[in-house]
UniProtKB/TrEMBL annotation:
GO terms for molecular function: nucleotide binding; ribonucleoside-diphosphate reductase activity, thioredoxin disulfide as acceptor. It is an enzyme of class 1 (oxidoreductase). Residues 16-97 form the TSCPD domain. This is ribonucleoside-diphosphate reductase. It comes from Micromonospora craniellae. The keyword Transmembrane does not apply.
């Protein structure tokens, strides 16, 4: 699934793929301009999450860890399914939960 967003003027894209049993298998978060610090950080975050998922970590661990984190960029996202995020991590968590719900609805 591919989602695009703009948070506080920063465009981004989140691509997630699912395994055959419907669980998140890969996360690719891109934001900022090529070779920027933000682009490097989102690339590192994507790699860390994907590596952990492949090692058996549940996606709920990332949803729970990143939900409601607060740092810039933050604000309206332009994404109808996730209209507001308190950070890129919060956007990622909300989108993971929306794209790949796991278990009962989280608050």
């Amino acid at each position: 699934m591919t989602s695009t967003f703009v948070i506080d003027g920063v465009p981004g894209r989140l691509v997630t793929t699912a395994t055959s049993n419907g669980e998140v298998g890969h996360v690719d978060l891109r934001a900022g301009t090529h070779n920027s610090t933000l682009a490097g950080l989102t690339d590192a975050l994507s790699t860390a999450i994907t590596t952990a998922l492949r090692a058996g970590a549940p996606s709920t661990a990332f949803v729970d860890a990143f939900r409601r984190t607060r740092y810039v960029p933050a604000g309206a996202t332009g994404d109808p399914h996730v209209p507001h995020a308190t950070s890129l991590g919060d956007y990622l968590a909300q989108r993971l939960h929306h794209n790949h719900p796991d278990g009962p609805e989280r608050p």
